[in-house]
Amino acid sequence: MTAIEVRDLCKRYGGTRAVDGVSFTVAAGETFGVIGHNGAGKTTTVECLVGLRRPDSGTVRVLGEDPARRRRVLAQRIGVQLQESELPGRLKVAEALKLYASFYESPDDWRAVLERWGLAPIRNKSFGDLSGGQKQRLQLALALVGAPEVVVLDELTTGLDPIARRETWRLIGDLKASGTTVVLVSHYMDEAEALCDRMAVFGAGRIAALGSPRELVERTGTGSLEEAYFALAEVAR
Predict the structure, then answer these.
(1) Residue 187, burial from CB neighbour count under 10 angstroms (0-12, 13-18, 19+)
(2) How far apart are CA 104 and CA 84, in angstroms?
(3) Which segment of 24-33, 80-89, 182-191 scores lowest on mean pLDDT?
(4) DSSP alpha helices (H): ranges in the chain?
(5) Is Iron found in the keyword set (predicted)?
(6) Does residue 121 contact residue 49 with C-beta atoms inside 8 Å?
(7) What's the sign of the alpha-carbon dihedral 171, 141, 74, 76?
(8) Fold of 2-77+149-236
(9) What is the H or E stretch that residue 120 is in?
(10) Which residues contact 127 (CB under 8 A, 6 or more apart)?
(11) CB neighbours (10 Å) of residue 64?
């Protein structure tokens, strides 16, 4: 079963083609990586997936719906964690989770999410007083409190210390085991290798390569995913 289908997606900003004929599918329950240098087109592609941008041409379907036309319907079925998201500085952690849970018809128990993501000790702490890692962990919990079928995570471990980063990997593994489809935008090759079933390497608005971490390494004849990425990104520039 296909959770996401993208065909010939194009998006321009003025005279620049940020995304130029991108096509891929993501199977239900798959963890799919989106990697590439800044300006490669990955952020615009993800914004089209969640309905924040309307494509100039091509088609995007998430759970069978057009995100540009059915964003409100999809909002009940997908979760999104964007790197630059902010909350009111005085809003407390528990208040934020309770508020976000109220947006959904069938959310997870926000108290259980609070515990699961290690936020219970800071439940009464204001967002403005959180560390960068605590903010990132809260944003991830907010993306999941609606019990989404598809979740889009943009640089989810940025700002986390090594221990918190590994714990987040474990929780994402649990999320995958539950059957949730995950789209993971990352700059970390070790993270992509540990979590992703397949990945798309973006460059110059196109997909330079698509496959599992092992397939990309074998295709480039390199010794690691990081080396494979650099080889593919160089060709794509």
Answers:
(1) middle
(2) 22
(3) 80-89
(4) 42-49, 71-74, 93-101, 110-116, 132-144, 162-177, 189-195, 213-220, 225-236
(5) no
(6) no
(7) positive
(8) Rossmann fold (3.40.50)
(9) none
(10) 87, 88, 89, 90, 91, 92, 93, 96, 135, 138
(11) 11
Which residue has 């690691």 as its token pair? 224
pLDDT in tens, 66-119: 999 999 999 999 999 876 678 999 999 999 999 999 999 999 999 999 998 889
The position carrying tokens 């993306």 is 143
Largest CA distance in the chain: 52
Tokens representing 1 are 């079963």
* Strand bridging mode 78-81 / 57-62: unpaired
50 falls in which pLDDT band (50, 70, 90)?
very high
Any idea where the domains of the chain sit in the sequence? Answer: 2-77+149-236, 86-148
Mode of pairing for the β-strands spanning 206-211 and 198-203: antiparallel
For residue 95, which phi and psi values (nearest 5 degrees)?
-65, -40
> Contact, 200 vs 33, CB < 8 A?
yes
Per the structure block, which two tokens stand in for 173?
């593994």
Q: How distant is the alpha carbon of residue 49 from its chain centre?
A: 10
**Would the pTM of this model clear 0.85, i.e. be above it?**
yes
Which amino acid does the sequence have at 121?
Answer: P
